[in-house]
């Protein structure tokens, strides 16, 4: 009976893996016969982990995606920074902010302030997406219009602020670049390529701006309220 259940589980996972063939092609993945079965085993393990998580009582669900045939070690090597980076944002003066302040706020429920989830692909540019996501939301809150901003401009142009394109960077340093360069272009005007290229920034097309950059001590909520 146990062997039958195990075989059924493997067949089910193989079926799901087969159904993801279309996605595999879309993500430019081509396997040899040997690697196919290695990826199938990894996929099976990940699917089992996803199913177990979704059976529990959690605030979020997990699902299959283009990374489901990768081990965490492979994902970490390709998409996560291997070493911590020092934050070097310039100091600034806190701006007073009068209360009262809510205990929590969910901007997803307040209006159109957040862009959809984006995909950095095989480029280590997570720092650019953190930067644009923040600036997109703040600009939308201030001006009432949500405009997707250019990660590619940061990948191509922010090296003088100790950023390294597809090899990592920091949002604080990206904000400094935007401040000194006097703006960030839109995604439409400077689309994402997922690789580093020559800088094509045009200040006259800048759509979002940064006036000042400052650091907040980790977990200092009162410091955040003072902004």
Average pLDDT across residues?
83
CATH topology of the largest domain: Cathepsin B, Chain A
Please state the second-level CATH architecture of the largest domain.
Answer: Alpha-Beta Complex
How many individual helices?
8
Tell me the total number of β-strands. 0
CATH homologous superfamily heading of the largest domain: Cysteine proteinases
CATH class of the largest domain: Alpha Beta
Helix content: 40-55%
User: What order do the helices and strands follow?
Assistant: HHHHHHHH
Shape category: globular
Runs with pLDDT <50, length 5+?
4-11
- The percent range for strand residues is under 5%
Count of structural domains: 2
Biggest sheet, in brief? Answer: none
* C-alpha end-to-end distance: 63 Å
Notable traits:
single chain; about 230 residues; mainly alpha; Cathepsin B, Chain A; 8 helices; globular; signal; hydrolase; zymogen
Give a quick summary of the entry.
With 227 residues, this protein is mainly α. It has helices at residues 2-19, 21-26, 33-55, 72-79, 126-143, 151-157, 171-181, 221-225. Helix content is 42%, strand content 0%.
How would you describe this structure to a colleague?
This protein is mostly helical and 227 residues long. It folds into 2 domains: 2-79, Helix Hairpins (Orthogonal Bundle), CATH 1.10.287.2250; 107-225, Cathepsin B, Chain A, CATH 3.90.70.10. Helices cover 42% and strands 0% of the residues. The chain contains 8 helices and no strands. Helix 1 (2-19) crosses helix 3 (33-55) and helix 5 (126-143) packs across helix 6 (151-157). One of its GO terms (biological process) is proteolysis. Keywords: Disulfide bond, Hydrolase, Protease, Signal, Thiol protease, Zymogen. Residues 1-16 form the signal peptide. Belongs to the peptidase C1 family.
């Amino acid at each position: 009976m146990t062997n039958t259940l195990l075989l059924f589980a493997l067949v089910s996972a193989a079926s799901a893996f087969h159904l993801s063939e279309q996605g595999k092609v879309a993500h430019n993945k081509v396997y040899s016969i040997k690697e196919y079965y290695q990826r199938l085993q990894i996929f099976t393990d990940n699917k089992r982990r996803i199913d177990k998580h979704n059976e529990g009582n959690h605030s979020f669900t997990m699902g299959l995606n283009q990374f489901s045939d990768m081990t965490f070690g492979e994902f970490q090597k390709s998409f996560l920074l291997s070493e911590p980076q020092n934050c070097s944002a310039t100091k600034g003066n806190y701006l007073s902010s009068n209360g009262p302040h809510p205990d929590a706020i969910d901007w997803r429920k307040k209006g159109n302030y957040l862009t959809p989830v984006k995909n950095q692909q095989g480029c280590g540019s997570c720092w650019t997406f953190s930067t644009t996501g923040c600036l997109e939301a703040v600009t939308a809150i201030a001006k009432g219009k949500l405009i997707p901003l250019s990660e590619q401009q940061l990948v191509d142009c922010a090296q003088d602020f100790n950023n390294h394109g597809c090899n990592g960077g920091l949002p604080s340093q990206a904000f400094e670049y935007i401040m000194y360069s006097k703006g960030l272009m839109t995604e439409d005007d400077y689309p994402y390529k997922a690789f580093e290229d020559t800088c094509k920034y045009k200040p006259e097309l800048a759509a979002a701006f940064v006036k000042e950059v400052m650091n907040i001590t980790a977990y200092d909520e009162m410091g955040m309220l003072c902004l």
